[in-house]
Amino acid sequence: MKTIGIRHEDKYAPERRTPLVPADVRVLTGQHGIPVMVESSPKRIFTHEEFEAAGAVVAGGLTGCDIILGVKEMPVGYFRSGKVYVYFSHVIKGQPQNMPMLRDLMDAGATLIDYERILDAQGRRLIFFGRHAGIAGMINTLWTLGQRLKALGQPNPFEKVRQAATYDSLDEAKSDIRAAGEELLSHGLPEDTGPLLFAVTGDGNVAQGALEIMDLLPAVSIPPSQLAGGNGREQLADPGKLYLVNLVPADYMVHREGRSFDLADYIAHPELYDLRFEHFLEPVDVLVNGIYWDERYPRLVTRKWLRDRHERKALRLRVIGDITCDPEGSVECTVKATGIEDPVFVFDPASGNHVMGFEGPGVAVMAVDILPSELPRESSEHFSRLLSPWVPVLAGADFTESFDALQLPHELKRAVIVHNGRLTPDYAYLEQHLGNGTSEPADRP
Fold first, then answer.
1. What is the pTM of this model?
2. Residues 209 and 304 in one domain
3. Which of 222, 264, 283, 288 is deepest in the core (most CB within 10 A)?
4. Alpha-carbon gap, residue 80 to 104, rounded angstroms
5. pLDDT value at position 239?
């Protein structure tokens, strides 16, 4: 039986997550007899003692492990021949910043399995942090709203909500949000603040997590059709209330030939659809973005739209919680991904510049790119619950076999991006991207 290693996360200083938690390690070691080694870490949310009590061995490195599980990208020089590495590699779009890492892994003769590509027959992710990205993202968006309104001289009930990372538990964060909701029910919003319209884009795990937090507030849900005429503010009858609309591609993408929206067709042929998002956006105060995006798809929020609305003194948008966080992607004014330590900037539509914090003219943007890290215990427990049933299959597979002969369930096999140093057929297209990015040659013992 192969030995499973759990890596210490070193890409970001605030990263405290783990792919497997002690409760699930106990099942793997006890019921399945799988050896588990945990690399020592001074910051992991679960202690060495908890892992040792679960039957794992805590060590300074993972050289004796066959399969190494991580969360974020692993550094150039880390990979070794014949070993299997499982993590979020962020290479499937040919991301230039990660091509040196991919080349190094291939040169080492290693195998890469990416959680992002472990999908069911309908193409839905089976192992994910998305729900907790949505949860943390919405908590942070409410915190950002509270601080932004305060900076504009508008006292508001969201001032009591803190950044997700500052809470000891998700329950503690939910308690503060419920308290803000109770204040809203009792006193409403200040006269010069409301009503407030929140728009959440998407219907996947991220959006569902965000909507789960919104359910803690007394928000009135309205259908997208209520905003379709571009005069959505007239539909918000009570100035003391919150309103919420959930927008999905079927609401704002229109087939050029007048056909009904079909998600599979849109994913395959986005060029056949036109974007009709701006009239939904005009009345929105807070946008929470939770959609998947790549360069084939149109931007939902453009700098031009922001600038035009600003020049006409008609820009209502005050806060953007960009959970998707593709810099200059679906939200073009997300000029950069932000860190947990400094998570918010204000984008000025007039100048195109941004300043960190909550002060200044424009729209406050929260764009943390490792949001689940702000809820390390809960997000790790959720992720481990999804991952752990697949670990015995990984531990029992013979990765020395050719890729064609490799015995893995289809869901896992199609997530193998590199097998023993070679790109697998589904990912052969990445060869054209491997010249992108630069790195120094790695030294290996």
1. 0.89
2. yes
3. 288
4. 10
5. 80
- 3-state helix vs strand vs coil in the chain, percent to 5: 35, 15, 45
Residue 107 domain flag: yes
Residue 356's DSSP bridge partners are: 345
Q: Does any domain span residue 156?
A: yes
- Residue 397 CA to residue 408 CA, distance in Å, equals 7
Q: CA 405 to CA 403: how far, in whole Å?
A: 5
Beta bridge partners of 111: 84
Candidates 87, 184, 79, 101; CA nearest to 142 is 184
- CA 222 → CA 232, 247, 381, distances in Å? 10, 10, 34
Name the nearest CA neighbour of 303 among 336, 352, 344, 346: 352
What pLDDT was estimated at residue 229?
60
Whether 445 maps to a domain, the answer reads no
At 289 the three-state DSSP class reads: strand
* Sheet-wide strand order for 319-322: 219-221, 242-247, 196-201, 286-289, 319-322, 363-366, 344-347, 354-356
Is the model's pLDDT at 441 over the cut of 70?
A: no
Q: CA separation (Å) from 209 to 31, 212, 238, 242, 380?
A: 32, 5, 27, 18, 15
Q: Please give the structure tokens belonging to residue 299.
A: 């931007």
Would you state the structure tokens that stand for residue 259, as one six-digit string? 């056909």
Nearest by Cα to 66 from 54, 81, 47, 88: 81
Within 10 angstroms of residue 52's Cβ, the number of other Cβ atoms is 14
pLDDT, one tens digit per residue, over 128-175 is: 999 999 999 999 999 999 999 999 999 999 999 999 999 999 999 999
Tokens 């308690």, residue? 175
The C-alpha atoms of residue 175 and residue 179 are separated, in whole angstroms, by 6
Task: Tell which of 358, 374, 390 closes a domain.
Answer: 374
Tell me which H or E stretch contains 49.
helix 48-53
CA 330 – CA 15 distance, rounded (Å): 26
Q: What confidence score (pLDDT) does residue 211 get?
A: 98
pLDDT at 357 over 80: yes
Tens digits of per-residue pLDDT, 310-337? Answer: 999 999 999 999 999 999 999 999 999 9
Residue 444 has pLDDT above 70, yes or no: no
